[in-house]
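Case study.
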Amino acid sequence: MTEGVSEELKEKVLKYLGTVSKAKNRDVARAVEVEKALVDKAIAELAKEDKIEYIYLGTSYIQLKQ
Amino acid sequence: MADRDTPLINNLEDGPWPSYVKEIKRAAKKNAAAKDLLGVQELSFKDKITHWKHGGIVGVTGYGSGVIGRYVDVPEEFPAVEMFHTMRINMPSGWFYTTDALRKICDIWEKYGSGLTNFHGSTGDIILLGTDTKSLQPCFDELTEAGFDLGGSGSALRTPSACVGPARCEWACIDTLDICNNLTQEFQDEMHRPRWPYKFKIKVSGCPNDGVAAIARADFTIIGTWRDSLRIDQDEVRRYVKNGFDIKGIVTDKCPTKALAWDEKAQKLNLRADDCVRCMHCINKMCKAIRPGLDRGATILIGGKAPIIKGAYLSWVLVPFMKMEPPYDEAKELLHKIWEWWDENGRTRERVAELIERMGLKTFLRAVDLKPLPQMVYRPRANPYVFFD
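After joint prediction, the assembly is written out as follows.
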């Protein structure tokens, strides 16, 4: 189980997404070097905050909200 | 807008069976999108190609699932279906509705969409066909207000599905409806925020008759079973035989492991319990005389899927017997382990069965902390589809 998500982690995720056109959660976790379950949670929170969005191109990706 | 001539699809109105063309024409009387939908279908039949594309960015705030973006590639010709997105709504376990609930869904959909529905999609969701991007959020808001939520789509957990189970069937060895509802509530995040290499399906059948075809369709298949012995009412068996029932031809000769034998002299149906593979055949044929055992749980299977990257797979046994009692922690823990391994190692659009085949069952079992068992047979996990050229 994961603990709470810090604002710092969410900032890291957003920063990474700013460098790519789209990404899978797994890629984000590797890039920010944080446990994937925690990154999943951060991404879910960012989606609810409407800061990222999902895109489907044969498989699902996330990207910064356009 | 003038009515288009649609000679090709009109053929689909012939015959005594229901016709979706007839239904869309009814909807077209009050909805421009339904009218254009007929035109697109006619054009596709004429050109022998689809004029639909799907994907891209559509959704509602916080969700990456439940909305499938669809667009027509000839919007200048069919402007009312330029955007014709599908919304998948999570159905209740067992598909039990009140008429009030159904009316509510239809009223909302007539307000925001084409009014066309599909009850239900293959996975079991309520399918609402055809709306534009700007209507998605208000439609979703009203649906949630009415107590509904989106189902799964994309590279996520798809809406879990179960047979009607104990609500209507005496053979249900597990509470399929509760399991389905419990897993759905537990895995909301996995369903609504796609994060995996591809889709993942959970289906629950109450007995080995497998009423939701979970073996052929689910990555994680839960099939109700029992680990003690069949219960046989010998008086009822004798009654069947006395009434002319061909117990040898219909039951014992067709028992796949010959676990059952009819003793004509003693007028008794004998069972070698260790040989019984719980296929349900004898129960289906002599339902008044034979019943499942009482020590009940589920067999967990892994890897059923239709063809995409590789061929179709039937799921195969992963855990021969698991007690299925709320809160179903053992099954949930196993699911988490499977997802973690698949997400870490899976290629894009690779289902868990394909990954197991690529990396080996041994590697998979080690990752999910399971020991190899004889029940984990590779065969007959063969392609269930037969194609005739």
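Observations recorded in class. Chain A has a mean pLDDT of 93. The interface with chain B takes residues 24-26, 36, 40-41, 43-44, 47-48, 50, 53-60, 62, 66 of chain A (CB under 8 Å). We will return to this complex in the next lecture.
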